[in-house]
Every structure is written in C-alpha cells, then in structure tokens.
Design the sequence.
C-alpha cells in the first residue's frame, strides 16, 4: 500500500529573493527534469504492458504480447512524452517577460530600471506538474505557493521535497512573518502612543495645581484651624473638588525624559510600520533588495542595541548596585 503526502505548500512573506536564490530554483527544475523524464518513460512502459496483458488471449504468444506493448507505447506516447517548462516574470505596468527557464528570463535584456513584482515558474514532465508562484495571496498578504501533482506519484513527491527545502532555506524567518502580519497595527499604535502621552500630560497639568492647593490645606491643618480660617478652608475645599485653576497658567512642564520616551516610542512604532512584502532582486530590484536589507539591520539590530546599552543596561546596573560609567 502506497502512502501519499501533501504536495502543496503556502509560506507567508515577506519574500526577499536575490538572484542567487532564483538561480538555485532554476537548477532544481533543471536537475529534476531528467529523472522525471525517465520516470515518465517507465510509467508509459508499465501502462502499455498492463493494457497489452489485459487484451491478450490465453494463447497469445510472447512476441505478439510484445507487439501489443509497442502498439500501446506508440499510441499513448503523447500523454507521457511531455516535457516543458515556463517562467513568467511580471513587471510594473502590466508587462511580462516569458522564457522556457527562469535563468533565461532573468537574462532577458529588459533594462536595469525594470522591476519584477511577481513570478510564476511551471514545469510539466509526463503526468507530473509543478508550479511555484510568488506572490500568491493568502489572507490578503503575499505568500509563496508551491503545488505539485499528482500527490500519490513518487517523482512528484521528490520534486515537491526539493522545492520545499528551497523555500525553507530562502524563505523568511518566523519573526519576519509576524512582523508583516501585524504591520498595519504599528501605525495605529504610534498614534495611540501620542494620545496616551497627551492624556498623561493633561492629567499631570491638573495634578500640578491640585498639589498646590493640597500643600496650602496641609499647612492650614498643621498650624491648627481657627474660626478665622473657615473661609480659607472652604476655598481650598471648593478648589480641590472643582479642579479650579485660579491663574489659568499652572501647566505641567515635562522634563527631557518625558519627551525622550515620547519621541522614541513614536519613532520605533512608526518605523516598524514599514515592512517589505515581496522583493525580487533582479534588475532594479537589486537596489531595492539592498535597501530593505539595510533597513532590517537598522530596525532590528541597531535600535534594540541602542535601547539595551543606553537605557536598559544602566537601569540594570543601578538595580544591582553598580554605577554605570
């Protein structure tokens, strides 16, 4: 009894593929093709022999059986002797570049200012069909999709395994997939960050003049209330209960740390709202790919490193009783 495994796979972006990764994919299709052709030839031979045996009579001679096998081979060769591949690069503006192989499509003289935004690469040998598409759409986000059929064919499973290994090697790490998934929320979080600090600033302004009235009330209580202090005490009670600001000038003036956290949080959240989705690093895409790689390094290495060394590390040192230099 044969065991079949799923031969379809979807991997969410962001997909940042350089030319070397595309050339490896092209090699996979080229390397698998001869084995698939031999497999198709063996499948045709097996089919022809099975049909010839089904049509044979008990007194059929061996040479007649072989003649029947050859007849079925010739008449059904068109269904098995199929071998083609097709690569399509979709450019901005609705233009396309088509070629039998991905390597030929990449070498097409389209100009260094052209940008490939997506691609498909298809292969059919005998009964085995394969397609890899980037970007497909899965949950409204870019994704790479691999489909190989028939699912119960050993050669199809071998081809799928090679394509899956390629995708896992050159695909995005899980943290980048999460980043792209939650990308729309970072912009919203940046505005909420400003809103929260505004509320804090307004609340701190109110507490400033409330604190002044509390100080006056404490002074009055400390020296002891006298009949002549009743009017002053009533004034303070009304001022505290009504959030009264007599001068209309007692505003909270936050210090540098307040503005530091405000700017830092807004910049970090806004920066995280800029995430790549699909970049094919050929032609003009090479420059785009390099820019995104530098951006990822800045965002996920430089900024966390700064936060660790400039903010968190001194706090940890003070926590354990060590003064930072």
Sequence:
């Amino acid at each position: 009894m044969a065991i079949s495994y799923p031969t379809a796979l979807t991997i969410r972006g962001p997909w940042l593929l350089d030319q070397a990764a595309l050339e490896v994919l092209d090699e996979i299709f080229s390397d698998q093709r001869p084995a698939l052709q031999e497999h198709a030839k063996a499948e045709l031979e097996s089919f022809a022999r099975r049909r010839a045996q089904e049509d044979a009579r008990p007194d059929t001679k061996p040479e007649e059986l072989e003649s029947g096998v050859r007849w079925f081979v010739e008449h059904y060769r068109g269904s098995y002797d199929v071998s083609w591949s097709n690569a399509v690069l979709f450019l901005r503006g609705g233009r396309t570049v088509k070629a039998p192989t991905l390597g030929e499509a990449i070498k097409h003289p389209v100009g260094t200012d052209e940008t490939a935004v997506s691609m498909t690469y298809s292969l059919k040998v005998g009964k085995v069909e394969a397609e890899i598409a980037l970007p497909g759409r899965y949950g409204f986000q870019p994704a790479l999709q691999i489909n190989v059929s028939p699912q119960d064919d050993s050669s199809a499973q071998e081809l799928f395994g090679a394509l899956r290994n390629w995708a896992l090697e050159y695909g995005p790490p899980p943290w980048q997939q999460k980043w792209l998934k939650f990308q729309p929320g970072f912009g919203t979080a940046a505005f909420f960050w400003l809103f929260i600090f505004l509320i804090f600033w307004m609340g701190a302004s109110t507490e400033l003049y409330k604190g002044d009235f509390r100080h006056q009330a404490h002074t009055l209580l400390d020296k002891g209330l006298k009949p002549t202090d009743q009017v002053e005490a009533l004034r303070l009670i009304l001022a505290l209960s009504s959030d009264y600001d007599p001068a209309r000038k007692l505003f909270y003036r936050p210090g540098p740390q307040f503005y530091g956290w405000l700017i830092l949080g807004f910049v970090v959240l806004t920066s995280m709202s800029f995430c790549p989705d699909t970049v094919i690093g050929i032609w003009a895409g090479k420059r785009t790919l390099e820019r995104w790689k530098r951006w990822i390094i800045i965002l996920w290495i430089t900024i966390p490193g700064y936060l660790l060394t400039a903010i968190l590390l001194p706090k940890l040192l003070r926590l354990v009783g060590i003064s930072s230099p």
Summary: The radius of gyration is 36 Å.
